[in-house]
């Protein structure tokens, strides 16, 4: 058992804290947001992440929440940095939250600490953190810096952290102390270790997200070509996915990728490359395809409805993916904004997520029935299971029109057509 301080009570921080407590450690999770900490201390979890609430409740004897960073850091021998690293306007990474944490923890280092960065940070950041702490006159005998990037997905965060496909550990060249500490801390997790330099670990994280985003933009481009030749892209995904060199995952065409990480991390890696005068052609193409994917659907809608601005559109899904209430950079919200600009009457429904801001002509309703009632067109924007299992005969009765736009290529086309509805996907033949 070790004493651990996790800084940042967001998706990654809360999951890290809960999993480390489950592994038997004494964990204090710190956030500067007093409301969040009050909620957590009252047993309320500020985000929707399946199973997280129960998992935290199960481990409360070893898990505490606080705003007092000094107290948390002083007691701990291991410190996790899990604060946000959002994009700046130019696509580079905003490191102000990480910098603030370093400034706050520096005066509290009086005994040996292993400082682990879980936040996704640009190449070179962990080396810079080490130098910054030295510049603040912290003795190198008192700390080490480790990069331990996180690969969890929202919606399955706990499972992913307990069953990772690898544990990536980036170390400074002369650091012989940290690896055994990390291995001991994670001793109950079975996974291969990738031990590399600090820069290497940072790059593995960016390359991983960029590759997954590339797969999505690739299949979206293939879907556009499929459409021109009346080919079903879902068959193509299955066909190519069976080749183990390609793999079946992340080949679902649709509205494109979103969320708090893919868009910002691909942009950041592009900027990292440009900072070294490397022109990242693939990364730029990946973003261009993604940035124009909503246009594909708007074009379809305009062709289906020449008087689109007079139509009532039910948009099912607001979250950037199912099983989360996260709307950060959500393709569903991007689509809603475009429909709002076109002055359509938009009725949005999501089982968990809320629209992040008010928009003209857009209403969020509390039930699926309310959204669908009188709709000229239903758009599936997030592939929640409950949308995949809809009774289309009943839906048809409630709609005014007959068009179902499958923005995630996740519906059974035949089933929908048999109910007398018209199915519109992307690249579905
Ligand atoms: N969300 C995800 O699924 C994944 C995120 N990541 C990376 O992990 C990092 C964190 O992401 P999220 O958990 O989504 O962020 P988040 O935005 O949900 O949470 C960050 C938390 O840090 C807190 N915070 C900021 N500055 C602080 C300070 N000085 N002291 C204490 N608390 C502070 C904020 O109040 C907030 O609660 C990012 O770098 C992200 O790229 C990595 C893998 C998965
Ligand atoms: O760094 C991160 O934050 C995380 O980013 C992603 O996880 P997440 O953003 O939770 O969600 P994904 O399941 O990867 O989906 C991302 C987006 O791609 C879209 N997507 C996904 C798969 C697919 O085939 N097609 C597709 O359009 C989803 O709808 C969603 O908008 C990665 O999968 C995680 O490994 C990583 O840790």
UniProtKB/TrEMBL annotation:
NCBIfam families: NDP-sugDHase. NAD(+) binds at residues 31, 36, 85, 120, 154, 264, 328. It holds the Pfam family UDPG_MGDP_dh_N. GO terms for biological process: polysaccharide biosynthetic process; UDP-glucuronate biosynthetic process. Keywords: NAD, Oxidoreductase. Its EC number is 1.1.1.22. It catalyses: UDP-alpha-D-glucose + 2 NAD(+) + H2O = UDP-alpha-D-glucuronate + 2 NADH + 3 H(+). The keyword Transmembrane helix does not apply. It comes from the Bacteria. This is UDP-glucose 6-dehydrogenase. One of its GO terms (molecular function) is NAD binding. The active site is at 261 (nucleophile). Belongs to the UDP-glucose/GDP-mannose dehydrogenase family. Residues 314-413 form the UDP-glucose/GDP-mannose dehydrogenase C-terminal domain. Substrate binds at residues 151-154, 205, 250-254, 258, 321. PANTHER family: UDP-GLUCOSE 6-DEHYDROGENASE TUAD. Pathway: Nucleotide-sugar biosynthesis; UDP-alpha-D-glucuronate biosynthesis; UDP-alpha-D-glucuronate from UDP-alpha-D-glucose: step 1/1.
């Amino acid at each position: 058992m070790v004493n651990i301080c996790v800084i940042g009570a967001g998706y990654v921080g809360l999951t890290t804290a809960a999993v480390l407590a489950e592994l038997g450690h004494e964990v204090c999770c710190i956030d500067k947001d007093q409301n969040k900490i009050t909620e957590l201390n009252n047993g309320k979890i500020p985000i929707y992440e399946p199973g997280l609430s129960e998992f935290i409740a199960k481990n409360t004897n070893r898990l505490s929440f606080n705003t007092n960073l000094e107290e948390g850091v002083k007691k701990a021998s291991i410190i996790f940095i899990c604060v946000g690293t959002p994009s700046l306007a130019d696509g580079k990474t905003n490191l102000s939250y990480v910098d603030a944490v370093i400034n706050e923890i520096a005066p509290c280092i009086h005994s040996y600490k292993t400082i682990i960065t879980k936040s996704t940070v640009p190449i070179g950041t962990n080396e810079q953190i080490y130098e910054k702490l030295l510049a603040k006159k912290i003795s190198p005998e008192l700390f080490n810096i480790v990069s331990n990037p996180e690969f969890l997905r929202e919606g399955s965060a706990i499972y992913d952290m307990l069953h990772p496909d690898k544990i990536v550990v980036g170390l400074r060249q002369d650091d012989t102390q940290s690896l055994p500490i990390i291995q001991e801390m994670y001793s109950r997790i079975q996974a291969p270790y990738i031990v590399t330099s600090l820069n290497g670990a940072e790059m593995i994280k960016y390359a991983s997200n960029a590759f997954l985003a590339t797969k999505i933009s690739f299949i979206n481009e293939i879907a556009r070509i499929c459409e021109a030749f009346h080919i079903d892209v879902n068959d193509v995904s299955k066909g190519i996915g069976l080749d183990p060199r390609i793999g079946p995952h992340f080949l679902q065409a649709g509205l494109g990728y979103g969320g708090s990480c893919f868009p910002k991390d691909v942009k950041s890696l592009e900027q990292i490359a440009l900072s070294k005068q490397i022109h990242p052609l693939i990364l730029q193409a990946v973003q261009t395809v993604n940035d124009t994917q909503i246009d594909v659907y708007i074009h379809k809608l305009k062709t289906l409805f020449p008087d689109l601005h007079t139509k009532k559109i039910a948009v099912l899904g607001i979250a950037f993916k199912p099983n989360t209430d996260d709307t950060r950079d959500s393709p569903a919200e991007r689509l809603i904004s475009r429909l709002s600009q076109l002055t359509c009457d938009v009725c949005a429904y999501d089982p968990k997520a809320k629209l992040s801001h008010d928009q003209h002509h857009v209403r969020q309703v509390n039930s699926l029935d309310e959204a669908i009632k009188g709709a000229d067109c239903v758009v599936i924007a997030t592939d929640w299971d409950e949308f995949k299992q809809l009774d289309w005969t009943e839906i048809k009765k409630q709609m005014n029109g007959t068009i179902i736009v499958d923005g995630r290529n996740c519906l059974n086309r035949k089933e929908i057509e048999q109910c007398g509805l018209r199915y519109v996907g992307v690249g579905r033949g």
